[in-house]
Amino acid sequence: MKHLLTICLLTTGLAICAGQEPDVHLTFYQQLQAEGGPKWKNDYPPATTCKECHPTHYRQWSVSPHAYAQMSPVFNAMHATIFKKTNGTSGDFCIRCHTPVGMNLGEPEFMSNIDRHPTSREGVTCIVCHRINTNYGKISGRIALERGNLIDVPVTTPNEKIRLKEIIAQSNVSTDTQTESGTKIHQAATYFAPMQESGFCGSCHDVLLHNGFRLEEAFSEYKRSPAAKQGISCQDCHMGVEHGAFSGDDATNYHLGGIATVDGDVTQPRKMTNHMFPGPDHSVIHPGIFPHNDQAVRDESEDPNTAIGLATIREWLTFDVDAGWGSKAFEQQEWQRVKAGQELTPFPERWQTRAGRQKARRIIDGQLDLLGEYQVARNEVLRNGFQLGDIDILSADRKSGIDFQVDVLNATTGHGVPTGFIGERVIFLQVTVLDVGGNLIYASGDLDPNGDVRDLHSLYVHNHELPLDKDLFTLQSRFLTTNVRGNEREVVLPIPFSLTPLPYINPQSNASTLEGRPTTARIHKNNIMPNDHRIARYRIPASQLTGNGPYRADIRFVVGMVPINLIHEIKDVGFDYDMSARDIAAGVLKGHTVLWERTLHFNFDTPGETK
Amino acid sequence: MIQQQPTTTPLRASLHGTLLLLSLLAVLPTLVGGAESSALTREVIPVNPEADAQFTFTELTDLPGFITFLRDAEPGTPAQHFYRLFNPALKAELMRWSLESDFSEALNMEIVKMLNQIVRRSDLYDASFWTDSPVSPALHGRFATEFSRLGPVDRSRLNRQLLHQAFPDFVAAPRTPSFPERPERIHLLGDAFLGSGDLQKGMTLPTGATWQPSLFAFGNLRVAGQHFDSGNGEPINELVARLDVTLNLALTPTERVVASFCPLDDGTAFTHYDENTGTELELDLEPDALFLEGDFGELFPFIDPQDRGSMDLGFAVGRQPIRFQRGLLVDDNLDAIGIVKNNMMLPGTSNIRMTGLFAWNEINRNGGVEDDNAMLFGLFSAVDFARTSMELDAALITSDTVTEDDRISGGDSLHFGLGFIQRVGLYNTSFRINASMADEETDSVGKGVLLFADASYTPAHSVDMVYVTVFWAIDAYSAAARRPTAQGPLGPAGILFEGPGIGSGGSVLSNLANDTAGGVMGRQWFFNETRTQLIGELGVRADLGSAGNHAGGAGLRLQHAMGQHWILRGDVAGAALSESEPHFYTGLSLSYQF
Predict the structure, then answer these.
(1) Least Cα separation, residue B393 to chain A (angstroms)
(2) For the stretch A139-163, what's the b/e string if a residue is b when 16 or more beta carbons lie within 10 angstroms of its beta carbon?
(3) Cα–Cα separations (whole angstroms), residue B547 to B497, B515, B542, B576
(4) At what angle do helices A354-385 and A328-340 cross, to 10 degrees?
(5) What is the mean pLDDT of the segment spanning A123-145?
(6) Which of A26, A274, B13, B381 is the most exposed place for a label (fewest CB within 10 A)?
(7) Greatest alpha-carbon span in chain B
(8) Is the peptide bond before A550 cis (omega within 30 degrees of 0)?
(9) What is the pLDDT of residue B9?
(10) What is the DSSP string of B319-339?
């Protein structure tokens, strides 16, 4: 009994040692109001501070997935859902990568982005990468950020020959923290060689949960890839002239340009990397608040009379872009109403004046242009990854029907496609076969009314309102959780609630390395490895043909950001920016992109015309 | 994009509901969540910290009444002031609406969106407008003194309070958010486990690795009162305790040292109280597991500074729990060293993992026969193909035979396992074949084959799970290594076949895989956002040997999470046997998870 008491006391003692988490409430707004002062003084200077000398990099970054990482309402709700369903034990795991600054500041794991610190909202902002001076390895994003103002903390750079001291000496810039005047500049830039290596990206882009769940393996896949053997790095393909491809040598692979504009002068041209990093993700939020733009957004803590930003996020959310506010046509129409004595649009406080609306419209137009540039880059990187190979017609006649197969290729040598968050990537073939009258006689890869393919996760399939698409060709990997019995089941989010009513995220008590997974969940990978391909086969039996030929098959290779069923799964914790699940879904579907399209013609009477 | 419109297909639903199940369990209704629609909601769902201040569609129970009240409000009244802030386009639409017709879903959502925009406005309160409303003096005071200093979320809360007090018949009081805080964790050293705040920079080793050591303890304390009657001898009535504590010294996310203790049991006997023996302490402070695991590439980054090689070999060394083929082949704590290679690439696959293992010392064979002379050599693999995952495993055990009291134990044996896990239609399925081979059968090893298959299905409009498991054990299959508390290899078949995991009772249906066939059907219902669960199961076991002692049983388990640390669980299970007395188990346990 003595031992039992000792153990109980020990356990209790350990529990007490754990202490209370600091009670952090939504005080950042008030904190910021109290802080005041210029942005460079901030312990975590925002990207807008860097923009003064690095406008090109800022512009590229501002629309990038790195910049969107925390702004994403899908991410915010997904992370919060996992947090809620694991009883808070997932802690900051997901969000530590998405807003390293916010987590360093001790912000709550879940809150509206609107009330986060401005640098926290910037997600993977400049200082997240450019203050790393330690080779952390595969650390799943848990990097120790350097705290300090713009001037005192050196930035890290992959450029060995940076001439910062010379620039400071020759230009009208200031590294004096005692005065407010002059353009502020970091007083030191430290060469950090690992920044050029793939391992630098791998510190975030290889996500191993603390329980051994291998959530993302972009870097692990890379290490086994032909690209790694050839000495091609992540940066070579993702920071060069062409998104998702390496030209073969540094001289042509990268842009050449001045890295900084100091006191109006552009520095000597040299290799200049692109910081846009396009990928499958895209913005679904109000264009007034993303891309990041210091001309657009004023933080609520800033004085509206002196702030550069036009409006706060909350104010932007009331600006009706689709109604055309601020556009010439809309304002003319509004003026006609004034003249006719009709009731006017009750503009919110911020948008009462025509001049204010027109200024906002100019900003919106610029934002939409930048989003358009991103979309072009996104298509480029996706087309460099996913390609269609040969399409073989195996049979096409009245007796046996139509039978053909489509070859889908991984066109990269650096990793599988898709890679990264492969459990929630929507990549599929949409195939339709029509007769000459335009009647649909076969469809696979079509979408349910929510916008999901008809797989197990489609709510319409799950609820037996639509049949399963048995021919569906998809490259989405699947999360599986272990059930109390009945082995594993496919799920949208890998929370093993069948095993326990109180799921916790804990480290495993066994060596999960050896099993490659925790006992509670795993991922069934379904991506295509480098230099590999996958065949999709479609058979339309003769009985399905209408007899009204010739027939036409349209094949589309579609890539989307996330499945709509994920939106459904995470909706209960709420979405940022006053968006409904349907609003988010509409934005996601708008970003579904047809990368490649092919058409086949089947003319049974004239076999030569079957092609 | 081509979209299909749903059609109700009762025949299909019925087929799906009966094809797999063919049992009463399968057609039992989903008890909660059945009303959830397939269509995605248009309702704006505010993020939780602000949710208490925001309107939701479901709480506006008398929206037509509210709109009529606002629309017909006299000038100068609070209602008119409030309605003045509505968008004219919406107001025009509301003018067209008449009480006889229903709001469209889209119009409902527009109204809720409008209300939420207004509740955020800083000009909603104006003392002159709200004086004639039933707003309390205290609230007026807060608007006068506090409002301008508040952050936006707190302003919304105050506005919501204003509307509630002004229009109590239509606007409910702000709700209490139900988002959890992080539970307290036992953090002993370094950065808190998954906690926010600054992270330590750590230390760089001569190998180039950067370590950020942190020590964290977690585990579970479970106390149970249980009754087990095996039909032979006295029934067991006991109060029993089990404590599992794991210390996790994380050096990096890939390298860590783990020590696990079960101080209240010695692996077979648990600290307990029963009326015959009184209190018996089974204290054991020896670690059940103590191992280091990591990744060579991360431990020695200087070998491949450009990360272009394939040095990312995982490893684990020390005494550690090992489990393969879902525990059917190996499920034991072993002194072992293992090396693993992940992300191997072969055409047609998405992932290949290969694990080589050498284990020695205290290998529990055939459900608990400890063999100190045995050595285990294993090669375990997992492959992901597009439609299936395959697990192909082999374990060789070398050991001298020992004869004692006419009983022979030890001996060499070879064990194989092959499993396929996939979805077939709407069903999650797995098929496994495991075999054990030996020159001669001893107490430690039997010769036999175990065929094991299971399927599960999630009924429409729910997250419930219906499952069916079948098995066929030919001759005397034995696992390569299996810890005594896990008992026989059929434990994974169902809750009727598994031991309670605590105390001296066993399963109501035998989990030994000797000349037997059988299966289970069960359903797991979820309530209360999955925090309350009920499992009902039916099972049979046919004895294919000479004894012919067939059995059939039924069981229920209810488990419920309380707060963020406690789980209450109740079990009741019984089995009738053709050639012996029935088995019965009932238990109630309380667990503290930390």
Answers:
(1) 11
(2) bbbbbbbbbebbbebbbbbbbeebe
(3) 19, 10, 10, 15
(4) 150
(5) 95
(6) B13
(7) 103
(8) yes
(9) 43
(10) EEEEEEGGGTSEEEEEEEEEE
Which residues of chain B fall below pLDDT 50? Answer: 8-23, 32-34
Tell me the C-alpha distance between B536 and B28, whole Å.
Answer: 11
What average pLDDT does the structure give for chain A?
A: 91
What does each C-alpha distance from A111 to A107, A108, A583, B45, B210 come to in angstroms?
8, 6, 20, 13, 32
Helix then strand then coil, % of chain A, to nearest 5? 35, 20, 50
Nearest to A348 by CA among B32, B116, B232: B116
- Tokens representing B369 are 């026969």
Interface test with A, best of B307, B469, B562 (most A CBs within 10 A): B307
What's the ipTM? 0.91
Chain A residues near residue B42 by CB distance under 8 angstroms: 580-583
Give me the phi and psi of B302, to 5 degrees please: -65, -20
Answer left, alpha or beta for residue A420, where phi above 0 means left and psi between -120 and 50 means alpha.
left
Backbone angles phi, psi at B430, to 5 degrees: -145, 145
Dump the DSSP string for A214-256: EEE-HHHHHHTSHHHHHT--HHHHHSSSSTT---SSHHHHSEE
Q: Which residue of chain A is at minimal alpha-carbon distance from B330?
A: A515
Quote the tokens at residue B156.
């919304």
Distance CA B276, CA B273 (A): 9
Q: What is the DSSP letter of B492?
A: G
Count Cα neighbours of B289 within 13 Å in the Cβ-side half-sphere.
27
Q: Give the confidence band of A609 by pLDDT, cuts at 50, 70, 90.
A: low
The amino acid sitting at A585 is A
How distant is the alpha carbon of residue A13 from its chain centre?
Answer: 43
The pTM of this model reads: 0.89
CB A291 within 8 Å of CB A371: yes
Spatial CA neighbour of A381 closest among A129, A125, A65, A69: A65
Instruction: Tell me how far apart the 2 most distant CA atoms of chain A are, in Å.
Output: 93
- Hey, how many other C-beta atoms are within 10 angstroms of the C-beta on B72? 10
Q: Which residues 392-411 of B have a C-beta within 8 angstroms of A?
A: none
pLDDT (tens digit per residue) in A399-446: 999 999 999 999 999 999 999 999 999 999 999 999 999 999 999 999
Nearest CA in chain B to A21: B184
Q: Are strands A488-491 and B330-344 parallel, antiparallel or unpaired?
A: unpaired
CA distance A186 to B99: 66
How far is residue A500's CA from residue B559's CA, in Å, rounded to a whole number?
8
Q: Check residue B43 and give its pLDDT.
A: 78
Structure tokens at B99: 């009480």
Q: CA dist A416 to A212, B345, B463, Å?
A: 21, 10, 32
User: pLDDT tens digits, residue range A29-62?
Assistant: 455 555 566 777 788 999 999 999 999 999 999 9
Q: Which two tokens stand for residue B398?
A: 């070398």
Least Cα distance to A558 among A405, A457, A445, A393 occurs for A445
Number of H helices, E strands in chain A: 23, 20
Which chain A residues contact residue B94 at CB under 8 A?
A: none
Note whether B210 contacts A134, CB cutoff 8 Å.
Answer: yes
What proportions of chain B, in percent to the nearest 5, are helix, strand and coil?
Answer: 20, 40, 40
| Contact between A465 and B6 using a beta-carbon 8 Å cutoff | yes
Residues A65-100, buried b or exposed e (16+ Cβ, 10 A)?
bbbbbbbbbbbbbbbbbbbbbbbbbbbbbbbbbbbb
Nearest 5°: phi and psi at B547? -70, -30
Q: Is the pLDDT of residue A228 over 90?
A: yes
30-69 in chain B: CB under 8 A from chain A: 38-51
